[in-house]
Amino acid sequence: MEQAEARVAASDGERRRDAFISYSQSKNAPLAKQLQRGLERLAVPRFRAMRMSVFRDITGLPANHDLWQSIQRELARSRYLILLASPDAAASPWVAKEIDYWLRERDTEHLLIAVVGGEIKWDDSAEDFDWRKTTCLPRNLAGHFTAAPLWVDLREIEERGHLSLRYPPFRAAVATLAAPLHGRPKEELEHDDFRQVRFVKRLGWSSVALLVALLMLAVHGFVDAGRQRDEAVAQARVSASQALAARSGQLLATSPNQAAQYALYADETRSTPESRRALAQAVAAAPHATRRLRADVDSVLPMQSVGNEADTDVVLSADGTTAAYKSAFDEVTGVRLYDVGSARQSRVLHAKGRPRALSRDGRILAAEVSLNRLQLWDTRTGKLLRTMATGHTENLARNVIGLHALALSPDGRWVAVSHFTPGGGAFLVVWSASDGREITRLPVSDTRVGLGFSADGSRMTLVDTGRQEVREFLTDSARWEVALSLPGMTSDPAGAVKHSAVLLFDGARKALTRTPKRAEIWDLEQRRLIAERSLGAYENMTVAEGEGTVVVGGRDGTVRLYDAALRPGTTLGRLVRPAGTLAVSADGAHVAVGSYGGEFNLFTTEVRRGQRLAFSDREFTIGDLTPDGRMAVHRTERHTEFWDPRTNRRLGAIPYANSSVNGGDTAYALSEDKRYVGMRSVENGEATGRFDIWDLRTGKRTGCGLAIDRVFDGNSPGVFFLPGDRYLVGDWNGTVEVLDTRTCTRNTVTAVSGDLALSGDRRTLVLLNGADVDAWRWDGHHSFEHTAHTTLPDESLGLTLGTSGVDHEGNQAAFSADESHVYVVRLDSGQQIRSTGYLPEMTNDAAFSRDGRLVFQGYSTESAQGVRILDASSGDQLDVWTTDPPATSAESGTGIQVVPGPGNDILTLGPDRKVVRRTVGVEPWRDLLCVLVSQPLSTRERDRYLGGLDVEAPCR
Q1: How far is CA 641 from CA 41, 667, 703, in A?
Q2: Residue 366 and residue 378: Cα distance in Å, rounded?
């Protein structure tokens, strides 16, 4: 509109306007704008130029001479003045000035009033407005009207905000003001406007119909092209996912961390049986790895020469909370600090030297700076505390060796280092860390000595292999004790420097000496050799100063543990390149490893990733886990105990020892509130049994129970509490019945008996009778509704419904058959999937992951036991997890029980009598692997496998 006004004014400066709108810009600008638009568009054909020209002052500029001249010119050109009357307009000096001009140059007959706010009142006796009540008009209108003028009331329209010609009251008000401007009756204007609107609507609907037809043709073509494009993209994603999964499998043996990375990208690209297999294998490949903090570089050749590997230094605080990392491959020139618990970078210290040691709490970092200088940094503030020099910092013939042995007291008060002098001599220096003051200096045979502080920092032990002696330095008195001989401990000067070292542990009471191929453990108090072992070729070694756990980094990248007697233990994992630097916490629980390619990994020696014992100090036998995994049963000679695998706590006990707890005639059920236990039992040699409900708080039977006539009929009995705990469902006397615990009455679900199972949400009941499968759904009140029936194939011999063979939502069931086959049945459609892959015939019941995408089946042989993983949608065998070897107390000839566990876990109970919780499922595995490695694929590898595909990083 402003552009139209400008064109009108520019084309003909003498052209007259039809109206000038005077109003308060601070209050009534929106209404004035819509009123101007309405006056110009009323009764005008939509495809013709506007007939009316209405001026609206929209400048909003401060008063000045040029502005008023412009307004005067527009007033002089206008036939009518329309006043938007309001208290703000009455108080506006601009409105008053415009009214004065109009009254002086024109007349009141061409002045139209539209009331938009305030009050207006005419006084007939005074033949003027009642100025005591009128608040919306400027006072300079007083005395200029001899009769009551006609005004248009827009106050209600202004309050509602309906400022459109489509709103009838607004259109009527605009027509009232436009009638004198057009010289036509108001009714004609409204009729013409309505006729134009109707014409536009008809034209619009015709256009819409045409556009819809064209759109339908376009959409059909677009949808068809989109479908073809989507199919092509989907196939490309499947192919890329399979290629990434295959690459993950290739890397399992050499680089489990990279295998995890490719497995994550495979599942993110498209979830397929191959990607799920890659996830399962990656979870099992490096059970002790916790996080890869820095990736291995693609190539190390530009920064390496023969016999000279690029430096990557890693240190770890004794409490295992802080790690420091510096590598020649890192783009950051300082030292990276990491919080081990969260595996997140906490700070970068602007230290130019190599990190050599951290205080026990990780507060102080000791960094070596060339030549023979040591810096102490505050890791919390990032500030340099002080720099200490050995006094021999120039013209060093053996400067590449630097400070060899280094020890930082647990409290960070004392620092000791060994170093060479320009003449080739070797010395040991002890400083006070608080002020950098040198406390003592002692000549040693070689820099490859052993240094270590006691746990309280009161003494420091020095082991000099060249002189075959051990000495102690008392920090409080700054005094050296008399040297004691260590006969038989010799160094290996011909070996590489890093392979010839002495590491102290156990409060500096024991020493680990290492040579290129051999390791020895010495008792420094008794001054004798207590263990030795030939390790062959290895790259580096360290020891936990408290526990004595020895960590060895192999030249093949393998990181392996040995105990204090140098007996081989767990393999923690494997790096892409040899493990150049190793660090371990004092308790041996955390291990930090750096490779020659800059890779930085954290491992734990305690709990295996995704696996832990549910009960560390108790033993159970096969069958002691209830089918829903909510309870474990432990029997003594006089009573039966019930335990919760979720909390590892005892739920209660009853004074009854059920001797047939593992028999086919025994079943247990735990109420939702964990107060009551339903128990079906029978004494040995008896032909009848009982079902009773026991109160775990009192250890007594409740009043509701029943006798069982048919003790054993070849089926696995099932007893389950239903939601709300009032009802139980079970197999009694050859029929499946619902028991009301309040009235102790029973209703029959089916007169057929068989293997019985209940879904995790406790609403879907599944019965296997021969090859017939039936399902019922609990209505939430008092009865079951039959929902599905299907028949398994005749070749499915020896079918059993796994004790936990229904998924959590009750959508599918798993059935074990002979020759280790498993059938997965969709209960709603009857679709059947048969597993592939072969295991020994001694297989056990199957359990679903909580998401229903995976099936887990236990197996055992005379020499091995474990769990195989099946894909529920395809039946493919994804992986076989071999569990720890059976304990010496394991029962021979027993299998392994697998049931659902808390959350995303399953519970396994094998011949070793231990209940183990294992995290399973696609999403839980992704979470586990993202904690292990969160870096995205390199640009080169992403282009190689995912070129042209939009795939986000899986660990966001």
Answers
A1: 89, 14, 21
A2: 9
Best CA proximity match to 476, nearest among 390, 413, 546: 413
Element (H, E) at 48: none
Nearest alpha-carbon partner for 344 in 289, 290, 381: 290
Angle at 532 between CA 527 and CA 534, to 5 degrees: 150
The token duo for 755 is: 């293997």
What is the model's pLDDT at position 306? Answer: 40
CA 508 to chain CA centroid, nearest Å? 42
Cα-Cα-Cα-Cα dihedral sign, residues 809, 841, 631, 877: negative
CB 260 within 8 A of CB 932: yes
User: Residue 628 and residue 671: Cα distance in Å, rounded?
Assistant: 11
Cα–Cα–Cα angle for 487, 493, 497, rounded to 5 degrees: 120
Distances in Å between the Cα of 418 and the Cα atoms of 491, 586, 650 are 16, 22, 56
What span, in angstroms and rounded, lies between the C-alpha atoms of 899 and 824? 16
Which tokens go with 575? Answer: 């790096």
- CA 936/CA 940 separation, integer angstroms: 11
CB half-sphere exposure, 511, CA atoms < 13 A: 29
The H-or-E segment that residue 939 falls in is: helix 939-946
Q: 885 with 834: CB under 8 angstroms?
A: no
Identity of residue 217: L
Partners of 670 in the beta sheet?
Answer: 677
Q: Which of 854, 906, 863 is nearest to 884 (CA)?
A: 863
Using DSSP's 3-state secondary structure scheme, residue 25 falls into: helix
d(CA 689, CA 97): 108
Which residue type sits at 216? Answer: M
pLDDT of residue 659: 60
For 346, phi then psi, to 5°, come to -100, -30
- What is the tens place of the pLDDT at every residue in 465-510? 888 899 999 998 999 999 999 888 765 544 444 446 789 999 999 9
Q: What share of the chain is helix, strand, coil (3-state, %, to 5)?
A: 20, 35, 45
In contact, 371 and 396? CB cutoff 8 Å: yes
Comparing CA positions, the residue from 600, 540, 658, 623 lying closest to residue 803 is 623
pLDDT digits (tens, 9 = 90+) for 786-810: 999 999 886 555 565 555 589 999 9
Strand (E) or helix (H) holding 207: helix 186-251
Instruction: Give per-residue pLDDT as tens, 890-908.
Output: 455 567 889 999 889 999 9
Classify burial at 48, counting beta carbons within 10 Å of its beta carbon; exposed 0-12, middle 13-18, buried 19 or more: exposed
Using omega within 30 degrees of 0 as the cis cutoff, is the peptide bond preceding 293 cis? no
CA distance 149 to 59: 30
Any idea what the Cα angle at residue 784 is, between residues 780 and 788, rounded to 5°? 120
CA 821 – CA 247 distance, rounded (Å): 29
Distances (CA, A) of 642 to 190, 463, 652, 656, 891: 87, 55, 6, 12, 22
903: tokens are 């959350």
Beta-sheet strands, E only, within 722-799: 727-732, 735-740, 745-750, 755-758, 764-769, 772-778, 784-791
* 107: its two tokens: 């007349």
Give the tokens for residue 34: 């819509």
Q: In what order do the strands lie in the sheet with 689-695?
A: 667-670, 676-681, 689-695, 700-708
pLDDT tens across 904-926, in order? 999 998 888 889 888 899 999 99
Torsion sign across C-alpha atoms 523, 528, 531, 537:
positive
Pick from 873, 837, 830, 828: nearest CA to 855: 873
Sheet with strand 312-316: strands edge to edge: 312-316, 322-327, 335-339, 344-349
Residue 515 vs residues 495, 510, 518, 538, 760: alpha-carbon distances, Å: 7, 17, 5, 10, 58
Distance separating alpha carbons of residues 747 and 731, to the nearest angstrom: 12
